[in-house]
Amino acid sequence: MAESLDGHRSHVRRLELFGTLGAVSRCRDFTAEALADRGWIPAETDEVGERVGDALLLVSEVVGNACLHAGGPEELVLRHERGRLRVEVADAGPEHPRMRVGRSASRPGGHGLMVLDRLAGDWGSEDKGSGAVGKVVWLEVSLPSRPPWNRRRAAPS
């Protein structure tokens, strides 16, 4: 557990990765386990279930892109704080992701960043820094606000 700049507790999990074989499924499983530990799974509502599905799809997209375009991810970092999940995928590739302009939606492939742009609350990429080669692609997914009342059903009498 770490403390954020605003004094709130954040939960951080890291998964070191080597190569591309099984990277996407390992990262999805790692993320699903983290979401379950934080109470996102099982989902209380359909809306929460959709956000969990979005988060897992987005992890697949950014890890898959690292496999296809950067020789594979080196590390997956999950930061959970106040109902928000930040996903960071580090790789050794120097090229930052960019949207393809004028790409037809009817052509296969090349739609991952459009999915990312539509489903993530925010996303981007940055150099690793400290003279390290490569980049970190990050995204954020927020859990829908929970209603102020308890939605659990009463046990049958």
In short:
The protein has helices at residues 23-37, 46-69, 112-119; strands spanning 2-3, 9-16, 73-81, 84-91, 122-127, 135-142. With 157 residues, the protein is α+β, with helices and mostly antiparallel strands.
Features:
globular; 157 residues; 3 helices; 26% strand; disordered C terminus; Heat Shock Protein 90; alpha+beta
Protein architecture, described:
The protein is of the alpha+beta class. The chain has a single domain, classed as Heat Shock Protein 90 (2-Layer Sandwich). Helix content is 30%, strand content 26%. The protein contains three helices and six strands. Strands 1-2-3-4-6-5 form a six-stranded antiparallel β-sheet. Strand 1 and strand 2 form a beta hairpin.
Using the 3D structure, state the CATH architecture.
2-Layer Sandwich
Order of helices and strands: EEHHEEHEE
**What is the topology, as strand order, of the major beta sheet?**
1-2-3-4-6-5
Number of discrete domains: 1
Shape, please? globular
Counted by DSSP, the helix tally is: 3
Subunit arrangement of the protein = single chain
Largest sheet: 6 strands, antiparallel
Q: What structural category arises from helix and sheet content?
A: alpha+beta
- Kindly identify the CATH topology: Heat Shock Protein 90
Mean of the pLDDT scores? 84
Helix percent band: 25-40%
E-strand count: 6
Strand content: 25-35%
Terminus-to-terminus distance: 41 Å
Protein name: ATP-binding protein
Keywords: ATP-binding, Kinase, Nucleotide-binding, Serine/threonine-protein kinase, Transferase
Pfam families: HATPase_c_2
Domain Histidine kinase/HSP90-like ATPase: 21-138
